[in-house]
């Protein structure tokens, strides 16, 4: 399944003086909030260098699991937010569409 989304820039506030900009997709924000705490993630009005993009849901879920792998004895933040792939699909489901099967034949 594919879905369309738009990247955005958030600030990860590690301390009062250290705010790191990060380009993320909207479905990543909840994961960042689990990792850092909701008060430490600030949305911005800055345009992300990536505009609207179509993503494969299965590939994107795998990327999230790799990008935000649990550290130490902490639980997996992606699993904590989405439970499993079906939970992730439910979240992005409004944007999801079934993949196109083949193309119409070209007229010769």
Molecular structure report:
The chain has 108 residues and is of the alpha+beta class. The chain has one domain (2-97). Helices cover 33% and strands 25% of the residues. It has helices at 26-36, 57-67, 77-82, 85-92; strands at 2-6, 8-13, 19-24, 41-43, 52-56, 96-97. The strands form two sheets. It has a three-stranded antiparallel beta sheet. Strand 2 and strand 3 form a beta hairpin. The chain is globular. Residues 97-108 have low confidence and may be disordered.
Number of helices: 4
Instruction: Report strand order across the widest sheet.
Output: 5-1-6
Stretches where pLDDT falls below 50 for ≥5 residues? 97-108
Largest sheet entry: 3 strands, antiparallel
The total count of strands amounts to 6
How large, in whole angstroms, is the Cα Rg?
17 Å
Helix/strand order, N-terminal first = EEEHEEHHHE
Terminus-to-terminus distance: 31 Å
Could you estimate the helical fraction of the residues in percent? 25-40%
- What would the principal axes of the Cα set say about the shape? globular
Q: What is the overall pLDDT average?
A: 88
Number of structurally distinct domains: 1
Structural class call reads alpha+beta
Q: Strand portion, in percent?
A: 25-35%
């Amino acid at each position: 399944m594919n879905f369309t989304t738009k990247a955005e820039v958030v600030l990860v506030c590690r301390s009062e003086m250290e705010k790191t900009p990060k380009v993320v997709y909207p479905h990543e924000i909840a994961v960042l909030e689990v990792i850092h705490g909701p008060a430490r993630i600030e949305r911005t009005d800055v345009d992300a260098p990536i505009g609207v993009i179509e993503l494969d849901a299965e590939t994107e879920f795998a990327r999230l699991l790799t990008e935000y792998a649990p550290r130490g004895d902490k639980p997996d933040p992606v699993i904590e937010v989405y439970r499993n792939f079906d939970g992730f699909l439910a979240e992005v489901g409004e944007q999801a569409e079934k993949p196109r099967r083949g193309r119409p034949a070209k007229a010769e």
